[in-house]
Amino acid sequence: MSDHNDQKLSPREMIRAHAGIILQLATSISAVVIAASLVPMARQAKLWEACHDTSLKWHVENSTGDTKDVHQAWATRFCNGGSLRPRE
Q1: Mean of the per-residue pLDDT values for the chain?
Q2: pTM
Q3: Which stretches of the chain are DSSP H helices?
């Protein structure tokens, strides 16, 4: 710190002198932690989409007379852990 000319800094002055760097470091670490925490969610979404696409294709091929909405609802219910048949 050339502006202090070898003077001993008080704790408050040291904190002020390094506050910007500390805040930038904290921001960077937070961004990395947030990005890392989103990875499992992205994997789950990819698996769910594959389940939905496969289930939708199967239901279209193996059912007769249903509308597109019925196929979508069935595939969504199945991939969310529901039963193969709706409750009546």
Answers
A1: 88
A2: 0.63
A3: 11-62, 68-79
| Sign of the torsion angle spanned by Cα atoms 23, 27, 30, 36 | negative
Q: Residue 64: what residue type?
A: T
Q: How far apart are CA 57 and CA 11, in angstroms?
A: 67
Contacts of 16 (CB under 8 A, 6+ apart): none
Q: Tell which residue, 44, 81, 86, has the closest CA to residue 71.
A: 86
Q: What is the C-alpha separation between 64 and 14, in angstroms, rounded?
A: 75
Q: pLDDT tens, 49-83?
A: 999 999 999 999 988 888 889 999 999 999 998 87
Considering only the C-alpha atoms of the chain, give the largest distance between any 2 of them, rounded to a whole number of Å.
86
User: Residue 19: CB partners within 8 Å, gap ≥ 6?
Assistant: none
